[in-house]
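Data card: per-record layout.
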Amino acid sequence: MAGSEGLKRSVLRVLDFIFILRPTVVVVMWVFFFGSAALAGRASGASLPLFFPSRDLLLGFGAMTAVLGGGCLLNQISDVETDRVNEKLFFLPRGIISMRAAWVELAVVWVVAAALAAPLSPGFRVVLAASLLLNVTYSARPVRAKSHCPWDMVWNGLGFGFASAAAGWASVAPLSSAIIPLGLTYALAVAGVTASTTVLDVEGDRAEGLRTTAAVLGASGASALTLVLVAAAGIAGALLRDPVGFFGPLLSLPMLVRAHVTRDRAHRIAANQFAVGAFVIVTSIRAPYLLLLLALVYFGSRGYYRVRFGFSYPGAGTP
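The structure for this 319-residue chain is written out next.
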């Protein structure tokens, strides 16, 4: 019995260091990375395997995942007091992982990202460096874009939307001007959902003096802006004839409209999570292996948060 308890604690300890990287958030990057990679393959005439991604695509995916995961970790390091007020992201506020260990993990994951990117094209490495810069300046001073409206939305849109799409493209084919309208479409969608997420944290952000979108515009204003940006992304996707850019927003809007009308926190959480799921479903038509990755993240997160913290996430709970 003692041996099994010790094994359980060891497994949970390893999982702590995985889930502090917030894979449920990094999923957003996966969507636009694989969606853009599929478009690049078609545009370049390359045969992109439907079920088995190429070596370069896997290396690019791993490098971008490490950069974004590190960005999520740096965000928690920078916002430990705000997270304590908002009662979320418990790893650092509750001392589950020490600040020193968090800094060490951050260095490790970003070194891993650089190592994975080394065999890839110069274009990909430039995109990865830009993504790293966006992640650092999003959370760290003196820029700290996350604490200033509208830069919180702009940085998330560029990082999760534009840079992710550019990285996916560069993993398959040389970068071209086609990535600009595509990346901007995805950036609009991400910026809209970012505005929606700030609604959930408005009280804690205001208490800490953060001027996030919801803190500046109010919950209702941020919610209305979400609808405008996501709808704009859908229109841009239709003009580009991009299924991800069109159907992702189209499927997301009803839940976001419901959250706007009811102003219910549970509806807001569900709308934000459903928006990610909608983009995943559309993208998985081109990249079916994304469904397997999503299943691992979803069911793994549900089990982990239930055992570790006593609630279900993704779901009604907020990590």
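Known properties of this structure: The chain has a mean pLDDT of 90. The radius of gyration is 19 Å.

See the next section for split statistics.
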